[in-house]
Design a protein that fits this description.
Layout lengths: L1 H11 L1 H15 L1 H29 L3 E17 L5 E10 L3 E15 L2 E17 L11 E3 L5 E6 L10 E4 L2 E4 L1 E2 L10 E5 L12 E13 L1 E4 L5 E8 L4 E5 L5 E5 L2 E9 L8 E3 L10 E5 L5 H9 L2 H19 L5 H22 L4 H24 L2 H23 L4 H19 L25
Parallel strand pairs: 1-12, 3-13
Antiparallel strand pairs: 1-2, 1-5, 1-6, 2-17, 3-4, 4-11, 6-10, 7-8, 7-11, 9-10, 12-18, 13-16, 14-18, 15-16
């Protein structure tokens, strides 16, 4: 009697139990999907390591700051023991005019299957300084060392320098040496001695400068707008720039043949003056420039596509479930599992192929392979070409829909919401004639089931 009662329970609730088991199986399949996502992240990390290795040997991201005119001075003060001591400090003067122009020539470097974009830059930097009046210099107990004045220019990675740097300083040639005597403005760079006239003879005087700077770098090229008026003009054959930093170009053109960008930044646009002592102000946050990166990141696209795994699994299982109840075909949970695993393997195929060929082609090959695999498997278990064709068509449309979502990042939410709405509407349409209360009843009880799946 107990067995009959139990059998009656399972018969009455067969559909409900099947739905629950399918839902649990779909959630379980997210575990291997998360494992595939971990593999994608691991491959992305390896790619990043390869890029860093290439960049370390070629030249890292570069930020050009300067030139800056630095005037050392001694300041006398009494310490805590009332002893008179001297401290060497620095007075930094920024240029009144700074004009930078040049060419950025990118090239692709490979390490194993990974590639990175590096660049060579050829810049001309010119402008002028105006020595402040005496009232702007430190006044109390100071001795200004005019003869030790020097010009410095910041460069993030001086290993990328390709040529000797010589500056035309007020019609005199000065050679830059490696390193900077102080690190108030930047930690890495070059310096050249530029002695100034003492006292009143040098105050208010203007000094022009002109130099060429050729160096290697990777990923980014930034500039710091330290001029009272700073202009930067960059040209490059790279067709996929990303302008970033504190300021965007006031004019730029981007085409398949490259880009041409122009920036103009005034001293009013930044948050530091034209001169100060020591490290009172920081100029680092005002940097701007361009990123030279590969246009397509296959790892980000693969991760984004894998986040739709639950949609693929859910729609496919839903389709098989309606085939079961509308066409009276039995699909075993093991068969559901195999179909779900095939859907997850798609993402492994996608990332492995896209590392060697174009992402779009990799997506096409991987999706066709999975659609064909599931369609043939459906034909073998359902024994009807029509049902197999329906399953293949729905999967093909779903893969095409996700591909469109990957291309339209700005409209992904809108397209996703519309797609879900259509999916729910289609599910309601398929189930409109299903009598859910009578599905679990024994054969012969209740009303007969409506016609099979026909879309």
């Amino acid at each position: 009697m107990k067995t009959n009662s139990q059998a009656s329970f399972f018969e009455r609730n067969a559909v409900t139990l099947k739905i629950i088991s399918i839902a649990i199986l779909a959630l379980i399949l997210l575990i291997p999907n998360s494992m595939v996502q971990s593999v994608i992240h691991e491959r992305e990390n390896r790619r990043q390591e390869a890029i860093e290795d290439i960049s370390a040997k070629w030249g890292l991201q570069q930020t050009v700051t300067g030139p800056v005119l630095n005037i050392p001075y001694y300041k006398e003060y009494r310490n805590s023991n009332d002893k008179l001591v001297k401290s060497k400090q620095y007075f930094h003067i920024l240029p009144s005019e700074l004009d930078i122009s040049g060419q950025v020539s990118p090239e692709e470097r490979h390490r194993s299957i990974y590639e990175a974009v590096v660049y060579s830059s050829d810049l001309n930097i010119k402008g002028q300084f105006q020595i402040p009046e005496s009232a702007d210099f430190p006044q109390d107990n100071v001795t200004i060392l005019w003869a030790e004045a020097y010009l410095s220019i910041g460069l993030s990675d001086i290993r990328g320098l390709k040529d000797e740097v010589i500056v035309d300083w007020s019609r005199e040639k000065r050679v830059f040496e490696a390193g900077v005597p102080d690190t108030d403005l930047f930690n890495s760079g070059l310096h050249a001695k530029t002695p100034l006239l003492e006292d009143s003879l040098g105050l208010g005087r203007k000094h022009s400068f002109d130099m060429n700077l050729r160096f290697n770098g990777s990923s980014k090229l930034h500039f710091t707008p330290i001029g009272k008026s700073t202009t930067v003009q960059l040209k490059s054959p790279w067709p996929n720039p990303s302008f970033d930093g504190a300021y965007i170009p006031d004019a730029n053109s981007v085409s398949d043949s490259g880009f041409d960008a122009h920036w103009k930044v005034l001293h009013l646009n930044r948050n530091y003056p034209q001169w100060w002592s020591n490290s009172k102000h920081s100029v680092r946050e005002s940097a701007f420039g361009v990123s030279i990166l590969l246009p397509v990141d296959v790892y980000q696209k693969s991760i984004r596509s894998s986040k739709y795994a639950i949609l693929f699994i859910g729609v496919t299982f839903l389709l098989f479930f309606f085939i079961e109840i509308l066409n009276k075909k039995l699909v075993h949970p093991i068969q559901y599992t195999l179909v779900g695993i095939a859907l997850v393997v798609f993402y492994s195929l996608l990332i492995s192929l896209s590392e060697h060929i174009n992402f779009d082609l990799a997506y096409l090959i991987a999706s066709l392979a999975v659609v064909l695999q599931i369609s043939l498997y459906s034909l073998s278990i359902l024994k009807q070409k029509k049902l197999s064709a329906i399953i293949g068509s729905v999967l093909g449309l779903l893969y095409f829909y996700i591909y469109i979502l990957l291309q339209l990042q700005g409209y992904a939410l809108l397209m996703g919401s519309v797609g879900l709405f259509i999916l729910v509407a289609f599910t309601m349409y398929l189930s409109r004639n299903v009598n859910w209360h009578e599905l679990g009843q024994k054969k012969g009880e209740g009303k007969p089931m409506e016609e099979g799946l026909d879309v």
